[in-house]
Request: fold
Amino acid sequence: MKRGDGRKKDELRNVRMEVGVLKRADGSAYVEWGNNKVFASVYGPREVIPRFLARNDRAILRCKYNMTPFSVEDRKRPGPDRRSVEIGKVTAGALEPAVILETYPNSMINVNIEVMQADAGTRCAGITAATLALVDAGIPMRDLVSACAAGKANDGIILDLSKEEDNKGQADIPMAIMPRSEEVTLLQMDGILTEDELEEALKLAVGGCKSIYELQKNALMAKYGE
Amino acid sequence: MTPGTLVAQGEYALGSGVIREGNEIYSTVLGLFYYQDNKKLVRVVPLEGKYLPKAGDSVVGKIVKVLPGKWLVNINSAYLASLDPRNALYDRVDDLSRVYNVGDLIFAKIDYVNEIYDASLFTKVMPYGKLRGGKIYEIHPTRVPRLIGKKGSMIYMIKQGTKSKILVGQNGLIWATGKDKMTDVIGKVITIIDNEAHISGLTDRIKEFLEKEGEQNS
Reply:
């Protein structure tokens, strides 16, 4: 089977990561994933606002996902909408199992994901970038979180769908795992797949996450030139 | 070491920056691995992160609120510290804001920290107390040991080289006062240490830098 951009079925787009790009944030990262361009910044641990959300045995993790108006072909109306609120929520859910929140009781960690350019798979790029930003902020983590999507287009199961494959395809499964234990922290799907196809797609996605994991480790090491 | 890297297997004592899962010990932070042979202690010293208050540390802080019975102090951490008048003054004072007001900078010792990092401060004796004039510099709290050096060698060298008075807070805030030109030099030195703390030969580079700057300004 041939794909629109000439990739193999289990091949990722070009991914470039950089850590510590924003000066004023406690931690930050930039991920270029194909034509996706995503910034993630982490502020905290800091005082909890509003106060009633504070938990006296652990920190709380709040994620915000935002798409800039110029990130898509038709101008996106600025501000939060149904979709970005949802992605913010699932991102927090994907990162929470990895972050050791008990280290900072009574505090708050803010993760902001800013999509500069969107081209299918922004939530995976966002989670990948957010993980790097958390590590850059010095927040203790059990493991990195790596995310990647798999899906079905033109009747074939493929890894890391591009914009065209996503829009015209039959199914899309974004997935995030903690690669060391292979624990799944995010799994969503839209579209229709048979059981066997799902099985195959998940296998592909895990493989994709693992290659992302290696890239993440390299990006973190690169900051200190090792 | 990145988070999630396997650092050791078997019976070891855990220091900071590591977590045990069954028989395996994994790193939890981005940092450098250390192993202490006599105690069988493994730890990962972080390269990033916010300051966590620890009893006995000296810190530079800023008064953010004056309450009827205490001051609240921002010590560049996730948590505010409190300063009780009993730990700051010898006499009773009715209006605390006449001693330290909002915005004042103080140099204080951390007296006590509880489990949820509420720190109480102490400023009763010299050199602790209000900081007048001078300039504030910031450095990663994790780089403070490099700024001070072995037995204070590095900070002594900087003080000598710039003929200034410097107070280093363990929380990553540094207060310095001296001639205008010299405070600029201190800022540059701190930036160098902040960026290159993990590269060896730091002392020599700082020494060279200070000598060069000293020649230019004399």
